[in-house]
Amino acid sequence: MLPKSRRTSFQELLEAIAVAIVLAMLIKAVLFQAFKIPSGSMEPTLLIGDHILVSKFIYGERIPFTDKRWPRFRVPERGDIIVFVYPEDRSKDFIKRVVAVEGDMIEVRGKQVLVNGEELKEPYARYVDDDMARRFGQYVPRQDMAPKKVPPGKLFAMGDNRDHSADSRKWGFVPIEDVKGKACIIYYSPQQFPSRMFRLIH
Question: Is the CATH number 3.40.50.1820 carried by domain 4-200?
Fold first, then answer.
């Protein structure tokens, strides 16, 4: 039998480990979750392999095992980079940028994105250089999109790498209820280590 003092120390260690596990589960369930960027659809903002933290509480994370949500601080806004359930395969998560919210009129003309009739200023957006593509005999399949009004409870999301992104132009609007959180920080980037570590995501 262990001496009382040693047994107490062992019990305290077990209690500390249990508390740490519970806190880690709580943080993952309610506050933050880690994701790894699998594709180049958000370049140059996010690179393939970037490890990011997503804030789950800002939009009101769903309470585990219920249909209810924690109180939300705000709803997704234009410019937010969000993680959400992929509409065409609900077993996958996607990450894109919100370019239009409910009630907005969204239109795409080539490299122009218009919201409510005004062109968005998008310094983060990347497009294929058309002159360079023609020089190498390449064709960029860029389609216009007629004006559409974003329905209530929905978002229109696009990748920053516009000519290499499957997004709302292809599969439609994102239900706000399917949004898991807002991308907030890059904590590790194998392509640009250490310069991109702990970089805020805008």
Answer: no
